[in-house]
Write a structure and sequence with these properties.
Elements: H1 6-10, H2 21-24, E1 55-56, E2 59-60, H3 64-72, H4 75-84, E3 91-94, E4 99-101
Antiparallel strand pairs: 1-2, 3-4
Length: 103
């Protein structure tokens, strides 16, 4: 079964060629190649909570440290955590090829 990424779940339209990409810009989670495959995602599509500049709740969020508390309560985060179960990877930092995994 294919697992969905944040832009599909939230239907934000900010993925490359998305319906709102021209208007709002492309979401960095949909292009961050430092996280390909983590939590079974495309790019950072299933670890979006650590990517600065994602568009959640109607506005662009800042760096991952500032947005983490709201992301931990997000319905998408909770779904990924449940779907991945024992294979869930909690990323604490994601800056192009500089990934720290929480243990």
């Amino acid at each position: 079964m294919s697992k969905i990424n944040c832009w599909e779940f939230k239907n934000c339209g900010r993925e490359p060629e998305g319906k709102r990409a021209a208007e709002l810009g492309i979401c960095p989670a949909s292009e961050d190649n430092s996280a390909i495959g983590i939590n079974s995602g495309i790019y950072a599509g299933r670890i979006c909570w650590v990517v600065a500049g994602t568009f959640c709740g109607g506005y662009v969020e800042g760096d991952s440290a500032r947005k983490m508390s709201s992301c931990l309560a997000c319905d998408f985060f909770l779904m990924v955590k449940e779907e991945e179960s024992n294979n869930f990877t909690m990323i604490t930092d994601c800056h192009l090829h500089n990934i720290s995994v929480a243990v």
